[in-house]
Write a structure and sequence with these properties.
Elements (H helix, E strand, L loop, with lengths): L6 E9 L2 E8 L9 E10 L3 H5 L15 E9 L11 E4 L9 H4 L14 E3 L2 E3 L6 E4 L2 H4 L1 E2 L6 H7 L2 H11 L7 E5 L3 H12 L4 E6 L2 H9 L3 E4 L4 H7 L6 E6 L4 H10 E9 L12 H7 L2 E4 L4 H13 L11 E4 L3 H9 L8 E4 L1
Parallel strand pairs: 10-11, 10-13, 11-12, 13-14, 14-15, 16-17
Antiparallel strand pairs: 1-2, 3-4, 3-8, 3-17, 4-5, 5-9, 6-7
Helix pairs in contact: 5-6, 5-11
The chain binds zinc ion (2 copies).
Length: 354
């Protein structure tokens, strides 16, 4: 039977707030550098919600969702040298070649051949990993072999939220002894908190409006600061009245950008790892000038971080267990999106097993 007739289960995008678990063609090798991965575990990312809510538009109906996944190589193209059928591997959220100008500088998220998993627009792009199988282009440079001794659910995070969080702390240039404010205690914010602590922050003030997220931030070693009229005063009080040395803005909303501006001290740095869709900054060039601020933003080069993060996980240097709130079968993903979107049932992270 020709491969294209094979059917698999996948989570398909139909319209905002409308996803379905449906039969889809099993992916096939399209280039000699491709791998077909049998997905062992996938997850729903906060940035999947941008698509789900219709904030980011343009996805073709039927696009298979998801960019957080790991699995077992089912088939490898003839030019693939590092992966053979049976090898287990984790993927970053986008592909990269490992050889272009951007890749050579560690900016794998801006690779000349970068494609984001789960984004097909006008027939072009790459299907996602919330499926039984996924095609991974440029597999030798994109995938990372799974080390022994790391639980799948932790390794999965290396491909996105952990890399993004650690990158945020690097982009913020957190120094030993710094007071760091983390805005937004979702998975990326919590991972940024871990990244800031690893870089030696003296205090990480974790700001969120949801009580259970603050509890989680405390378990990750942060100082919970409820979002409200006292937020700025609390951060100033913790920093000898100056304001935070670094603000890591992990919300991706203008109100959070503005608050980051208010919180940071003169000469401080704001790093924004989240996706931003608005056309203007929440502060003016004059305001940046008046505070001598540094502002850094952009998609995290996850691939460039993965080996380092997997090594930390192998050494059990990070405890991520509190992050996972929901585990369900792939077919239940539409319900998982609903719960995650509405922040019900103390939902922080949904894992999906095909
Ligand atoms: Zn993501
Ligand atoms: Zn490249």
């Amino acid at each position: 039977m020709p491969k294209t007739l094979l059917r698999m289960k996948a989570i398909a995008f139909h319209a905002p707030f409308e996803l379905a678990c449906e039969a889809a063609p099993e992916p096939v090798l399209e280039a000699p550098t491709d791998v077909i991965l049998r997905v062992d575990l996938a997850a729903i990312c906060g940035s999947d919600l941008h698509v789900y809510r219709g904030v980011e538009r343009g996805l073709d109906r039927g696009t298979r969702m998801g960019h957080e996944f790991l699995g077992t190589v089912a088939e490898a193209g003839p030019a693939v040298t590092r992966f053979r059928p049976g090898t287990r591997a984790v993927s970053p959220f986008s592909t990269s070649c490992g050889a272009c100008f951007a890749c050579r500088r560690g900016l794998t998220s801006r690779c000349e051949q970068s494609q984001l998993f789960g984004w097909v627009q006008e027939g072009r792009g790459l299907h996602g990993g919330q499926a039984e199988y996924v095609r991974v282009p440029l597999a030798d440079a994109t995938l990372v072999a799974l080390p022994e001794g790391v639980p799948d659910e932790q390794a999965l995070l290396a491909g996105d939220v952990l890399s993004t969080g650690f990158h945020a702390a690097d982009a913020g240039d957190v120094q030993p002894g710094d007071v760091v404010a983390v805005l937004g205690c979702g998975p990326v914010g919590l991972c940024a908190l871990l990244g800031a602590r690893e870089r030696g922050a003296r205090a990480v003030l974790a700001i969120d409006g949801v009580a259970e997220r603050l509890e989680l931030a405390e378990r990750f070693g942060g100082t919970p600061v409820p979002l409200g009229p006292e937020t700025v005063a609390r951060v100033r009080a913790a920093s000898e009245g100056r304001g935070a040395d670094v603000a890591l803005e992990a919300v991706g909303h203008p109100s959070a950008s503005r608050l980051a501006y208010e919180l940071v001290r003169v000469g401080g740095t704001i790093a924004a790892p989240g996706v931003h869709n608005e056309p203007h900054l929440a502060f003016s060039p004059g305001e940046i000038y008046d505070k001598n601020l540094t502002y850094r933003a952009g998609r995290a080069p996850a691939r460039a971080y993965m080996e380092r993060i997997l090594a930390r996980l192998t050494a059990h240097r990070l405890d991520l267990a509190p992050l996972f709130s929901h585990r369900m079968a792939l077919a239940e993903a539409p319900r998982g999106y609903q719960i995650f979107d509405q922040k019900r049932e103390r939902c922080t992270k949904v894992l999906l097993t095909p």
